[in-house]
Amino acid sequence: ASRGATIIPVADFSSVPDVTKALAGVEVVISVVGAPALQLQVPVAEAAKAAGVQLFVPSDFGLNIDAKISVYDEIRSLGISASRFFTGGFSDWFWTSPLNLQVKSGSVESGGDGNAEISFTSRPDIARYVVYVLTTLSPGETKNRIFRIEGERSVSLLDLCFIVVP
């Protein structure tokens, strides 16, 4: 708010009428909900369509999971234009929870043998990229498109474990 944003509280994001009212006059909705709340994007997208939003960006950020695909299919079935951004894992968050990193012992837990390759991108880089795409491309160039960004490409967890930070 101190930088000019208008804050409109919404008590229940599953309430299409409440969210529709909050989205009046908004051109683009960018969802950033996490995995436990992915399904909540469907009523928000429905409200966005009712409010006349031109573009909905579902929360495809981070690793690709099956639940994101089914939610995206539901959103598209509503008839609202959508853009997807695939980013790989969050490099600035990755080591905190999914991998039980033990700094003192120098160990880390991972599924498999650690050789599977994965992409990483930092969340600030993702934010800058999304803003760049949405502010430089025309609405027609973003409608129902997939955009990809990778800060670090094809790195395995085993490779990352051998990176020495002074």
Largest sheet, described in full?
3 strands, mixed
Mean pLDDT: 85
Alpha-beta content class: alpha/beta
**Topology as H/E string?**
HEHEHEEEHHEEH
Estimate percent helicity: 25-40%
Spatial separation of the terminal alpha carbons: 40 Å
- Large-scale geometry: elongated
User: Total number of β-strand segments?
Assistant: 7
Q: Return Rg in Å.
A: 18 Å
Given as residue ranges, the uncertain stretches (5+ residues, pLDDT < 50) are none
Descriptive notes:
With 166 residues, this protein is an alpha/beta fold. It is built from 6 helices and 7 strands. The strands form 3 sheets. The protein has a 3-stranded mixed sheet. A two-stranded parallel ribbon has the order 1-2. Helix 2 (41-51) links the parallel strand 1 and strand 2. Helix 1 packs across helix 2 and helix 2 packs parallel to helix 3 (66-77). It is elongated. The mean pLDDT is 85.
Q: How would you briefly describe this protein structure?
A:
The chain is α/β, with parallel strands linked by helices and 166 residues long. The chain has helices spanning 16-22, 41-51, 66-77, 123-136, 139-142, 157-161, and strands spanning 28-30, 55-57, 83-86, 89-90, 117-121, 145-148, 152-156. The strands form three sheets. The chain has a three-stranded mixed beta sheet with strand order 4-5-7.
